[in-house]
Hints:
By secondary structure, the chain is mainly alpha-helical. 71% of the residues lie in helices and 4% in strands.
Amino acid sequence: xxxxxxxxxxxxxxxxxxxxxxxxxxxxxxxxxxxxxxxxxxxxxxxxxxxxxxxxxxxxxxxxxxxxxxxxxxxxxxxxxxxxxxxxxxxxxxxxxxxxxxxxxxxxxxxxxxxxxxxxxxxxxxxxxxxxxxxxxxxxxxxxxxxxxxxxxxxxxxxxxxxxxxxxxxxxxxxxxxxxxxxxxxxxxxxxxxxxxxxxxxxxxxxxxxxxxxxxxxxxxxxxxxxxxxxxxxxxxxxxxxxxxxxxxxxxxxxxxxxxxxxxxxxxxxxxxxxxxxxxxxxxxxxxxxx
Length: 291
């Protein structure tokens, strides 16, 4: 073999893999880790327990809130998705995805190698999205199976498929947000705690205060945009964009104001949250030093 050939082989063996290859490798091994992790089985168990309880309760009691129509059935069943399935998936898979690199010191061994931080970040995000999607798909499949049992095989309304699509958009936004906080702090427990508080309590409280105290539309709140998931399933039709209801005698009592994002508005809000938080999280991860 000539010296020129040997030099060519040596150079090719030392070539740094492309960004796409690095993303694929990060996704592969992170996704495998997720599927083997305790958190995946815990989240899967939570989804199966919720689905099993709903299946048993609906089958035994046949509550009126479920039975009038397929749309009513999904409106009640799928109302659990944003606050439990999607938020818990984001917290479980994204809460410590980046901060764990600092806390567990794994970044000291991987990142000094010729591995781009952007490839690690994107590969981890994609793996978290796929792992969360498995949980969401299982929950959706059980809901559809129950609905078909009561109303027939061809009875699934198109609004459910819309809500399912919106749920995946919201999942992307939730993971973008959790990855941002995971990049912001180096402690996994703090990043998980912050995201859990914000999504389970914080956003809803702020939205309620803005709507009824300040009385402006909370178009800048992520959970306001995600309201289209449940609104599209309303049996009475999609709710009005703005509504004001007065409780009590004329001149007294309380007036309650409510806003509902339109479908285009909800999609745009969730998409902006995903894009902005994902980019900010990546920039923070790129600039943060391992000390």
